[in-house]
Specification:
Butyryl-CoA Dehydrogenase, subunit A, domain 3, 14 strands, 6-stranded mixed sheet, alpha+beta, binds flavin-adenine dinucleotide, 16 helices, Butyryl-CoA Dehydrogenase, subunit A, domain 2
């Protein structure tokens, strides 16, 4: 099959999966007012790959490395900086053209690429073969995947084996000749209800007495024992909003419960090798932080654009403090872009797999998470209180009050009031809404908390070298001692 149409993708979701939202079981998620938006968001990426213009298809479709057949770009296991750059370009294009996040193939393949790299490091030919065969399955059927890493974790200060019950971390509860049986729950899983396959990776390092928690595998979404409990979402545009032509984009997260789920051996990528659990979580995190910094660039570009436009509509482009704030905004965006680019240009090779530079990818993720709220504050500051109190589109459309709004809510003379209101609503969505609060939390936690990035930065940064250079400068180590 290679490249599916959006129709084929949607049909594949009518498979009797067990999905709940707001307390109700949903039979056909494609027709649900909230989950349907998630399906459409993912569907847009299928549509562009199958029917986009030639330039877009050249980016979203790659050649199978052995057969030359068309495959989705996300199913190219990166082997060079060029492959990583192409992945970023594909993410940018998807975001810019659909206005949505292309999540799924990217998180899922972040998991699978990590599982492949770690199977090589383990020297486990069977796991490596399983991962490569599974990749062929994804390539051939053009499947949507989600990445299930985060366990519910219970008491964070306690290890998996010391929790109130044994299932706060997903674990293997049985094994036989045919496969393994797993129990537990993964949480916050992006686009999970609309996925074809779930790829599971351990959430943390496991110790010797926690071998049953060191497990990684792939499983179809409609497998018996799997239940998706979804967060609720905003639903389609309302007539209160000034909004663009394109539909709302959503990627509903879900908690996935695995209630004694059977996984055949040929879909298992780790089972009990606790010594490599950290390596798998770490390698996944590196791939995934690179995905994060790739998708974040186009999204913060739009937000920076809101600040520029609002400064213009408010007639403030020449005000000193506004220019200073715009410079801070540009520095935030361009630092992120430069770091994302550097992470792709300086990969670390794990066998034949190019892993984005771990130090730079973590620095980039930390930069965007740590400075995001300050970035938002600058946009709020430039835009004014109207972000909190703006009239809505129903007011605008009511002839009894329309003329007041038209007359009083204008800004600089060269722009129409309507244009200013459209931009106020766009800016509000990004920095003063339920959605923007969601994104603030997402920016801090999704792809790992800031503490997780700092841990990896400490691990990767050349701390000993820094110390040695200081000791030479202080005369503690003699000048002329080799430093590298
Ligand atoms: C919108 C969204 C989408 C997401 N998508 C996915 C996805 O697709 N797949 C997936 O697997 N995950 C996903 N995540 C999960 C994300 O990776 C986690 O939210 C993140 O790793 C933090 O975990 P947590 O939410 O359990 O928070 P917690 O782990 O509870 O963290 C809260 C705070 O406690 C600190 N902390 C935690 N444990 C300890 C400890 N032992 N010692 C000291 N401090 C500690 C953390 O550093 C943080 O500061 C998503 C999250 C969000 C918000």
């Amino acid at each position: 099959m290679g490249i599916r149409t959006v129709k084929q993708y949607k049909e594949s979701l009518r498979d009797n999966r067990k999905v709940y939202i707001s307390g109700e079981r949903v039979d056909d998620i494609t027709a649900h007012p909230v989950l349907g938006l998630t399906v459409d968001t993912i569907g847009a990426s299928y549509e562009l790959a199958a029917e986009g213009d030639q330039k877009t298809r050249d980016l979203l479709i790659a050649k199978h490395p052995e057969t030359g057949e068309p495959i989705n770009r996300f199913f190219v296991t990166p082997q060079s900086a060029e492959d990583l750059h192409n992945r970023t370009r594909a993410i940018h294009t998807l975001m810019r053209q659909t206005g949505g996040l292309p999540f799924g193939k990217d998180i899922g393949t972040d998991c699978l690429n990590a599982a492949m790299a770690v199977a090589q490091q383990m020297g486990n030919a069977q796991y490596e073969k399983n991962a490569r065969n599974f990749l062929e399955h994804l390539r051939k059927n053009d499947l949507h995947t989600c990445g299930a890493i985060t366990c519910v974790k219970g008491d964070r200060s306690k290890e998996p084996a010391k929790q109130k019950h044994p299932d706060y971390y997903l674990r293997v509860v049985d094994k036989n000749d045919d496969g393994i049986v797993v129990n537990g729950a993964k949480i916050h899983i992006t686009s999970a209800p609309a996925t074809n396959e779930i790829i599971v990776v351990p959430t943390r390092q496991m110790r010797e007495n926690e071998a049953e928690y060191a497990v990684s595998f792939a499983i179809p979404a409609n497998t018996e024992g799997i239940t998706f409990i979804c967060r609720n979402g905003r639903g389609p545009w309302s007539d209160r909003e000034f909004h663009p032509e394109r539909p709302v984009r959503e990627l509903t997260e879900a908690m996935i419960v695995f209630d004694n789920v059977f996984v055949p051996w040929d879909r298992v990528f780790m089972c009990g090798e606790w010594q490599y659990s950290m390596q798998l979580a770490y390698t996944f995190a590196t791939f995934h932080r690179f995905t994060a910094i790739s998708y974040k660039v186009p999204s913060v570009e739009i937000m920076a654009g809101c600040a520029v436009a609002m400064a213009k509509y408010n007639g403030l482009m020449k005000a000193g403090h506004i220019r200073e704030k715009l410079a801070d905004i540009a520095a935030y965006v361009e630092t992120l872009r430069a770091l994302a680019d550097a992470a792709a240009s300086n990969p670390v090779m794990y066998g034949d797999i190019a892993v984005p530079n771990p130090l730079i990818a973590n620095m980039a993720k930390l930069h965007f998470a740590d400075k995001y709220h300050d970035f938002i504050k600058l946009i709020q500051d430039i835009s004014g209180g109207i972000l909190a109190t703006t009239p809505d589109k129903r007011d605008w459309n009511n002839p009894e009050i329309h003329d007041y709004l038209e007359y009083y809510l204008g800004g600089a003379a060269e722009y129409s009031t309507m244009e200013r209101l459209q931009m106020i609503h766009e800016t509000m969505r990004h920095v003063a809404s339920h959605e923007s609060a969601f994104h603030e939390v997402t920016t801090v936690h999704a792809e790992g908390s800031m503490a997780a990035q700092k841990m990896m930065i400490l691990n990767e940064a050349p701390m000993e070298k820094y110390e040695k250079r200081a000791k030479i400068a202080a005369g503690i180590i003699p000048i002329g001692t080799p430093v590298d």
